[in-house]
TrEMBL record:
Record-annotated membrane-spanning stretches: none
Top-level division of the source organism's lineage: Bacteria
Native organism: Stenotrophomonas nitritireducens
Protein name as catalogued: Peptidase M19
UniProt cross-references to Pfam families, sorted A to Z: Peptidase_M19 (PF01244)
Length: 408
C-alpha cells in the first residue's frame, strides 16, 4: 500500500533548472540502483506506460515520468519481504521471487520499443543511444534463495546482476541492520551459507549489495569479496545515526576497494522524524484495515491519506525534504570521493521527500550538484557513470567458465 508525502514546504530544492544542468544530464547516463516499481506491475490497472502521479496513486516511476525526469534506467528490484524461515516459508519465498522476476521480464517484453534488458556495463550507453530505458535486475533480500541457493545461477541466466543478502530481519544468509537501532546479531555477520553466496556471486560477476545488512556483514563482505561491492540505497550515519546508514570509516573503506554507495531518499533514514514504535504500530493497523491491498479505489486512497495525516499530526511527525537529502549526498561525496557515489532513491519502496517526490525531480539533484561546485565529469559519474564502472569492474573479475556454464 502506497502512502503520500505532505505538501512541499521550505527546503524543497532549486526552483529553476539551468540550461547547463539540463545539458549535463542529457549527456550523462542516468541510473538509479534501487527501483521498487516492479511491486506495482501486478496491481490491477497500473501500467508502466501510463503517466501516473505521486499525488494520485503514490507511485513514483513510470515511463512518461522517466522521460520527463531524464532517468535512463537502473536496477529494477525483485523484493521479497522476510517471512518464516521454515520449509513452507522458504518455498513461498522461492515462488514469490520467481514470479517477480517473470513480471519484470514480461514488462520488458511487452514494451520492446521503450525498455530493454541490460546485463553488461556497455548496455547502459547502447540502450540510451537507441532511445530506450535500461532494465538491470537486482534482488533485495536473498530469501527466495534459502530453499535452493543454486537458483542463483538460474537468476543470473535470466538477467540478475545485483544481489543483497538481507532486508529488515535476519535470515539464513546474514544479519540485518534492522530499522533504527541495530538488533543483536544471529550469525555475527555472515553465516556460512552467506559466505558461500558471496563466493558464487563473485564467480558469476553479480554485484554484491550490502544495503540493509549489518555493519558486521559490511566488514566481512568487504573482506571476502574479490570484487568491489555496492550499497544500492543507503545514507550517512554521521549525518543521522540510523542503523540503516553507514558510518564515515566504512564509507572510506568501501571507496578504497573501488565500491560505490548510492544515496537513499527515504525520509526516516535522513532525519529523526519522531516516529515511535507506537506510531508505527498504528500505521500498521491502518494498512491492515484495508487488507494491505495495493488496488485501492480513489475513495479508499483518500481515506488512507486522511488517516495517515491524522497520525502524523497526533505524533508530531517531521517530514524530510530535499535539503535533508542533499545533506546526506554532499556529505557522502566529500567522504567517499565523487567517483564512489551514486543515486539509489528507493523509488516506489518508501523513498521520496518534500521537493523530491518522484523521478521528475531528478534534474533538481543535477542543479544542486552544479550549485555545490561539481563539474560535468563529476556529476556524470554520480548520475550513473560510477555505477557503470562498478558493473564493469565486477564482471571483469568473474570466472569465465562459471559464466559460460550459467548461460548454457
Amino acid at each position: 500500500m502506497l502512502v503520500f508525502a505532505a505538501t512541499a514546504q521550505a527546503g524543497t530544492g532549486p526552483e529553476k533548472i539551468s540550461e547547463r544542468a539540463r545539458a549535463i544530464q542529457a549527456r550523462a547516463i542516468n541510473l538509479d540502483t534501487h527501483l521498487d516499481t516492479p511491486a506495482l506491475f501486478s496491481q490491477p490497472g497500473w501500467k508502466i506506460t501510463d503517466r501516473h502521479s505521486f499525488q494520485g496513486d503514490g507511485s513514483q516511476i513510470d515511463y512518461p515520468r522517466m522521460l520527463e525526469g531524464g532517468l535512463d534506467g537502473g536496477f529494477w528490484v525483485i523484493f521479497t519481504g522476510q517471512g518464516e524461515r521454515d520449509a513452507a516459508g522458504n518455498l513461498k519465498a522461492r515462488d514469490a521471487g520467481l514470479v517477480r522476476l517473470s513480471e519484470i521480464r514480461e514488462m520488458v517484453a511487452a514494451n520492446p520499443d521503450k525498455f530493454e534488458l541490460a546485463t553488461t556495463a556497455d548496455d547502459a550507453a547502447r540502450i540510451k543511444a537507441a532511445g530506450k530505458k535500461s532494465v538491470y535486475i537486482s534482488m533485495e533480500n536473498a530469501y527466495p534463495l534459502e530453499h535452493d541457493p543454486s537458483l542463483l545461477g538460474f537468476y543470473y541466466k535470466q538477467g540478475l546482476r545485483m544481489l543483497s543478502l538481507a532486508h529488515i530481519s535476519h535470515n539464513d544468509f546474514a544479519d540485518s541492520a534492522g530499522m533504527g537501532v541495530a538488533p543483536a546479531g544471529e550469525h555475527g555477520g555472515l553465516s556460512d551459507k552467506g559466505k558461500a553466496m558471496i563466493a558464487e556471486a563473485n564467480r558469476l560477476g553479480i554485484i554484491l549489495d550490502q544495503s540493509h545488512a549489518s555493519n558486521a556483514v559490511f566488514d566481512q563482505m568487504l573482506e571476502l569479496s574479490r570484487a568491489p561491492i555496492i550499497l544500492s540505497h543507503s545514507g550517512a550515519y554521521d549525518v543521522f545515526a540510523h542503523s540503516r546508514n553507514i558510518d564515515d570509516k566504512r564509507i572510506r573503506a568501501l571507496a578504497k576497494k573501488g565500491g560505490v554507495i548510492q544515496v537513499n531518499s527515504l525520509g526516516g533514514y535522513l532525519i529523526d522524524t519522531g516516529a515511535t514504535p507506537e506510531y508505527r504500530a498504528e500505521r500498521r493497523k491502518v494498512y491492515e484495515s484495508f487488507g494491505d491491498r495495493h488496488d485501492l479505489s480513489d475513495a479508499e486512497r483518500e481515506q488512507v491519506k486522511a488517516r495517515m495525516a491524522e497520525l502524523d499530526a497526533k505524533y508530531h511527525i517531521r517530514k524530510a525534504d530535499f535539503d535533508d537529502y542533499m545533506r546526506h549526498l554532499l556529505h557522502i561525496i566529500k567522504v567517499a570521493g565523487w567517483e564512489h557515489v551514486g543515486l539509489g532513491a528507493d523509488w516506489d519502496g518508501g523513498g521520496g521527500v518534500d521537493g523530491y517526490e518522484d523521478i521528475t525531480a531528478l534534474p533538481k539533484v543535477v542543479q544542486a550538484l552544479l550549485d555545490a561546485g561539481y563539474d560535468e565529469r563529476q556529476i556524470g559519474g554520480i548520475l550513473g557513470g560510477n555505477t557503470v564502472r562498478l558493473i564493469r569492474d565486477v564482471q571483469a573479475l568473474a570466472d569465465p567458465a562459471a559464466v559460460k556454464a550459467a548461460l548454457e
